[in-house]
Amino acid sequence: HCGYAAIIGRPNVGKSTLLNHLIGQKLSITSRKPQTTRHRLLGIKTQDNTQFIYVDTPGLHQRQGHAMNRYLNRAAISSLVGVDVVVWVVEASKWTQEDDHVLSILRDHSSNIPVILAINKVDQLADRELLLPFIAQLQDKYSFSDIFPISALRGINLSELEQKIATYL
Ligand code: GDP
Ligand code: MG
Q1: Ligand 1 touching residue 155 (CB < 6 A)
Q2: How many domains does the chain have?
Q3: Is the pLDDT of residue 124 over 80?
Q4: What is the pTM of this model?
Q5: What CATH number corresponds to the domain at position 82?
Q6: Which residues, 6+ apart, have CB-to-CB distance to 111 below 8 Å?
Q7: Is the CB of 125 under 6 A from ligand 1?
Q8: Torsion 37-21-12-93 (CA) sign
Q9: Three-class DSSP labels, 41-86
Q10: Which residues does the annotated region (G1) include (predicted)?
Q11: Which of 44, 55, 84, 90 could covalently link to 3 via disulfide, CB atoms 3.0 to 4.6 Å apart?
């Protein structure tokens, strides 16, 4: 297996932290899949017979309006083209307008791509029961292929997330 996983989400949700954990130290670039300049590679990991290619989605946090933001939005949207799976990272205890903006882009532009919802920073939750209504709200907004509560910082549920990503590559 070899494929592209796009890690998306507004700033500060923990995308870089997640990638650092997922990629670890095992870096190699042996992909023969066509790679386009739309994709900014964040890292490649080869494990057993699976190659994970993580890509960035530039400017997804920008809002519409200003010409530069529209340009960045187009870049973000085109970076979704051709990926095998999207991992959308949100924060367990903090929802902002920028999350809504990411959601609207997913609604409009990820019709055939499976979207895994990664609810990060669960280590910060005082009460894990709070996750249940949060998950229910999100399921009303979008049909996710999978939902994983994780902590990128503490390494909670990351191998399960990675195994699920691998099934889409
Ligand atoms: P990015 O902007 O989405 O790439 O977010 P970063 O990976 O830079 O993380 C933003 C901040 O959130 C940093 O201070 C991280 O240490 C923190 N952070 C990331 N993941 C977690 C987590 O699982 N738990 C907690 N408590 N903090 C986290
Ligand atoms: Mg980052």
Answers
A1: no
A2: 1
A3: yes
A4: 0.88
A5: 3.40.50.300
A6: none
A7: no
A8: positive
A9: EEEEEEECCEEEEEEECCCCCCCCCCHHHHHHHHHHHHCCCCCCEE
A10: 9-16
A11: 84
